[in-house]
Amino acid sequence: MAQRPVEDMDISLLAAPARGGVVDVPGQERLVAKIFRAPCRPDQSEHLRQLIALPHLMGASDRDIVTSGSCWPLAVLTDGDGAVVGCLLPKAPAKFLVDLTAPSGRSVVRYLEIDWLANPDAVLEKRGLPAQSLRSRTEVCRGLAAVAAVLERHGLVYSDWSYSNSFWSSEDCSAYVIDIDGCVPASGPNLHQPGWEDPLTSGGDDADTYVDRYRFALLVARCLTGRRRAEHVMSAVRDGTELDAFPDLRDMLLRMLLSPERRERPSIQQLLGVLRASC
User: Fold this and answer.
1) 0.90 cut: is pTM over it?
2) Other CB atoms closer than 10 Å to residue 45's CB: what's the count?
3) What confidence tens digit (pLDDT) does each residue in 15-61 have?
């Protein structure tokens, strides 16, 4: 069962920065507070409150997926004037923390971002991480897709599928999606990052489910192949040998990435089905 939304919290109760950042919540070991860079507009506040309530309107299966696999917001933070300035979130489980070897050689404990999986095994091993088989990479992507499919199923657009917005565990191949509080219904800001541009969506257009499908498929392809540059990823999926064991998965990714029309892109739910069959 998902943790029930808690009451709004006044930001004055936290030792919080004026704008931007994540801080601990006094007396709550399992919660953190995310402070936004600017107060929410009324429509943004309403969207956030709807997002907080949504898990308790979902079926049990979807609710369990987002509870265990995502940092779903639990309550809003308000200032003295009642404006929404942040949200309360569950703290990511400790299993996603890892002891990395920094370039300097010293040990650094940090959350293991999905960024690391989009690398060849030689890079992982150099930084103290175990090599990842195609099957383990597929299992991590299955966990990501389970959350992404719930968002898609409930009409939510994430837009910011990229290297830094998910964690993974090299021990049990589980995944954890963060920044869920930025989801919007139907369509919203097209969050641009170099290397993640949707070739069929102009820069001035909002992001929608078809943008999410492209960016999510690109993230999965990067994690499966260990390649980063978009052209290298496309070549590896289309012509390489990495996915020879999973031809249906290769075909699904190619359809999501190379379909000539946005609306021809298969859904994330379809991709999830192929990932489950491949694990």
Assistant:
1) yes
2) 17
3) 665 677 888 888 888 999 999 988 899 999 999 999 999 999 999 99
SS3 state of residue 208: coil
> In this structure, are residues 242 and 236 in contact, taking their beta carbons and an 8 Å threshold?
yes
DSSP single-letter state for residue 278: H
Write down the H helix ranges in the chain. Answer: 42-53, 60-69, 121-126, 134-153, 209-225, 230-239, 247-258, 268-278
Look up residue 81 and give its two tokens: 């004037």
Residue 219 CA to residue 113 CA, distance in Å, equals 12
DSSP 45: H
Exposure string of 167-176, with b = 16+ CB inside 10 Å and e = fewer, is bbbbeebbbb
DSSP string, 110-146: EE-BGGGGSS-HHHHHHTTPPP--HHHHHHHHHHHHH
